[in-house]
Amino acid sequence: MNVGLEGGCLCGRVRFRTTQAPLRTLACHCTFCQRVTGSSYFAESMFPVNAVEFNSGLLNSYAHVSDGSKKKVFVHFCPNCGTTVSLTFERWPEIRGIARGCYDDPNAVDVSSHIWTESAQSGTALPANVDCFAAARATLDGQAEPCTRYAAPVMAKVKISR
Ligand SMILES: [Zn+2]
Ligand SMILES: [Zn+2]
């Protein structure tokens, strides 16, 4: 399933293909992801860093220091159209995130968890039957955090029991 996913940026200069299925695909509602996308949340798939091949070295990058971990997140974007195609992480150098919206077929992957739901924007629905985490999936020292699976969709900014 999902082997050899292809995609690219808005203008088409940056193209990528993956050599395996994603490790997981998540929707992140943190304030960084809201700002970097200019949108409500960022859906991205995580891959081993060497499982994504790009057509060339055309991506520019911007290093942002995370509020929480104080480690850098690298935003990789097309220098021509500005589309954020990928993230890499100082904390997890073996991982590369690929923006779900950049796949030629975004529906080739399913979102398996929503994270940082405590900062999700009003009007955002958290779906039923996926793992929802109030903050990250794990603490900064690597302890797994509890998650909630709702029986029915829940609107963000309504008090969510944890
Ligand atoms: Zn582009
Ligand atoms: Zn985020």
Bound molecules: zinc ion
Strand content: 25-35%
Straight-line N-to-C gap: 33 Å
Order of helices and strands: EEEHEEEEEEEEEE
List the domain count as a whole number: 1
Shape: globular
Major β-sheet annotation: 8 strands, mixed
Alpha-beta classification: mainly beta
Structure overview:
The protein is mainly beta. The chain has one domain (6-155): Metal Binding Protein, Guanine Nucleotide Exchange Factor, Chain A (Beta Complex), CATH 2.170.150.70. Helix content is 4%, strand content 33%. Strands 6-7-8-9-4-3-10-12 form an 8-stranded mixed β-sheet. Strands 1-2-5 form a 3-stranded antiparallel β-sheet, with no helix packed on it. A two-stranded antiparallel ribbon has the order 11-13. Strand 6 and strand 7 (72-77) form a beta hairpin. The termini are far apart. 29% of the residues are buried.
Please give the structural blueprint.
Elements: E1 6-8, E2 15-18, E3 24-28, H1 31-37, E4 42-48, E5 52-54, E6 60-65, E7 72-77, E8 84-89, E9 95-99, E10 113-115, E11 125-126, E12 131-132, E13 154-155
One zinc ion (ZN) is lined by residues 9-11, 13-14, 78, 80-81, 83.
Summarize the structure.
By secondary structure, this protein is mainly β.
Task: List its traits.
single chain, 162 residues, mainly beta, Metal Binding Protein, Guanine Nucleotide Exchange Factor, Chain A, 8-stranded mixed beta sheet, 1 helix, 33% strand, globular, binds zinc ion
